Amino acid sequence: MSGNASKAPGRIKEIDSSSNPIIKDIKALEKKRVRTDTNSFFVEGHKLVVDALEGGWGVRTLIVGKNAAGESHVADLISKCVARGVDVLLVSNKVLASLARRDNPQMVCAVVEQKRGAPRDVSGSTSGTWVALDRVRDPGNLGTIIRTADALGAAGIILIGDTTDPFATETVRATMGSIFANPIITIDEAGFVELAGKFKGTVIGTHLEGSVDFRAPDYANEPTILLMGNEQAGLTEALVAACDHLVRIPQAGTADSLNLAIATAICLFKAREHGLPAIDGASA
Ligand code: SAM
After folding, report:
1. pLDDT tens digits for 66-101?
2. Measured from the CB, is residue 239 less than 6 Å from ligand 1?
3. In terms of CB atoms within 10 Å, which end of the chain has fewer, N or C?
4. What is the pTM of this model?
5. CA-based nearest residue to 139, from 99, 96, 179, 183
6. Rounded Cα–Cα distance for residues 78 and 89 (Å)
7. How far is CA 216 from CA 131, 181, 206, 243, 260, in A?
8. What is the CA radius of gyration of the chain?
9. For ligand 1, is residue 229 a contact (CB within 6 Å)?
């Protein structure tokens, strides 16, 4: 079941030992296989947990450092979770440190159910800008792109082929909560080529040998898919063939190319410019 509607109240349990089996199961979410088998992932930080709840994602377990449980914003979150049927673990600092990947563990964490969009969300869309990524490998790049896509009002993210896991802790952390904002669709290359054929709008590929300046397309003519290449190899030939235009960001200097996340941000800003709110008092 997705979300946390109409369940029996959650239970509160205290755990002081990092060898407790519940804690071991949560720790095992570091592994992609375990995340996939359990269809869940680990989220660190009060803001991210609140974003998950407010975004209607299924929070399975809330984990709170005992020392923080009395703080009003944490106590509020505990009550909200219990009311929605989420079990709460009150844990020692030692347990928190064993779960955290960094030196400074967050006092609030959660196990959240994975959620993905469907290809028909893309083929059926009549407006918006989708960001498609060919075999993205770097978790930091993916997290940054998910965050940027959220900030610039993209419709969602399409992950093509063998990509890094969007639900890996490092990626989720880099999204700063935007993982919960937009649909993420995973699809293989052949599936994407088929999807691009059915798509009602324009597929704009980005390529170092693109013949069109990235500022030239009429991005207001939605829907669009902005297709970005792999960090090392760029776009495959099959994906290049699926594009209506191949655009390039002009470069000066000696760099061969831009970092994938930076190139996505530059193109996506241009593609979404027409839909972004104006800043009062500023002239464009
Ligand atoms: N060696 C790769 C190649 O030949 O395509 C470089 C890939 S680049 C690091 C990763 C992706 O960022 C590219 O596939 C493209 O989507 C985008 N990119 C980077 N610089 C770009 C530029 N100047 N114009 C258009 N896209 C660019």
Report:
1. 999 999 999 999 999 999 999 999 999 999 999 987
2. no
3. C
4. 0.94
5. 179
6. 10
7. 18, 29, 13, 15, 20
8. 21
9. yes
